[in-house]
Amino acid sequence: MTARIEIENLNQFYGKKQALKEINLTIETGMFGLLGRNGAGKTTLMKVLSTLLPKSEGQITVCKRKVEHAQAVRNITGYLPQEFSMYPNMSVYEAMDYLGVLSGLPKSQRKQRIPELLERVNLQDSRRKKVKQLSGGMKRRLGIAQAILHDPKVLIVDEPTAGLDPEERVRFRNLLCEIAENRIVILSTHIVGDIEATCEHIAVLDRGEIIYQGTVSELIGQAEGRVYQAEISKSELEDLKQRCIVTSMLTLGNNVMVRFLSEEKPFASARPCDAGVEDAYMYLMQGRGGETGCSDSY
Ligand SMILES: Nc1ncnc2c1ncn2[C@@H]1O[C@H](COP(=O)(O)OP(=O)(O)OP(=O)(O)O)[C@@H](O)[C@H]1O
């Protein structure tokens, strides 16, 4: 059966500050990416969906359960928060077992499920290690194992790859994709590359509003025909930055290889190139103010 989250007209306030504005979103089985810069409202949305924050206005159902029925939603939802830490002095197995006790899993189920999960997140050989001895990536994987201990239909992960090295990052993303085969996995991130590698469906949040929802390929389609590449001098670069959005650059001696967005070919040596998700994200964000960032290599 397909899992489904439906969000209608969600408005969320912290006192007078409105953190989410008229959010309408449907999320189905598989990986769903929630992209947005810092302060966009991602964590707020994740917390409302996982019932850690009561919603201010609107309707939300998680697999047909209303979020007002917090316990019913928690029974089918796993959450890995941005700042995840757990029992540093316990061993990996003890920590999982303790969490299992807290979530009411009977001993026989814990004995069966915990080794299976540790194997799944590739921590079976570290089950006797203390949690504080694990690397950042191992801790995140343990975080996933605890979040899916009760076999939830929905897994919500907030900024999971921050601070991971490239290898751990890829391993972690692959793990999320496997988990998403038969449930909803919502991946909230400001890292465009995390979304590109894993999610077909995404939403982009900015200042509390959804400014895009659809597939990654449709988003890329919006920037198609507007991406160019050229080798230019450093002084020409300053001029180009005034006129166009530079999405990446690579220094080549005195020159710079730049990739940038332009509605039309700006000069003869500029070569058109295929749009990528980072170009498309920058195209979407242009004119919205604030710092969207730019990668420094291809
Ligand atoms: N407890 C709070 N009280 C008041 N304002 C808050 C609170 N928590 C968040 N905000 C504000 O709500 C907005 C959305 O914050 P949120 O943490 O949801 O964004 P985010 O996209 O998750 O960003 P980040 O990646 O930096 O966590 C921001 O303007 C933030 O300052």
TrEMBL record:
InterPro entries recorded: AAA+_ATPase (IPR003593), ABC_transporter-like_ATP-bd (IPR003439), ABC_transporter-like_CS (IPR017871), P-loop_NTPase (IPR027417)
Protein's UniProt keywords contain Glycoprotein: no
Domain ABC transporter: 5-232
Keyword DNA repair: no
Domain of life: Bacteria
GO terms, molecular function: ATP binding; ATP hydrolysis activity
Protein name: ABC transporter ATP-binding protein
Lineage, opening ranks: Bacteria, Bacillati, Bacillota, Clostridia, Lachnospirales
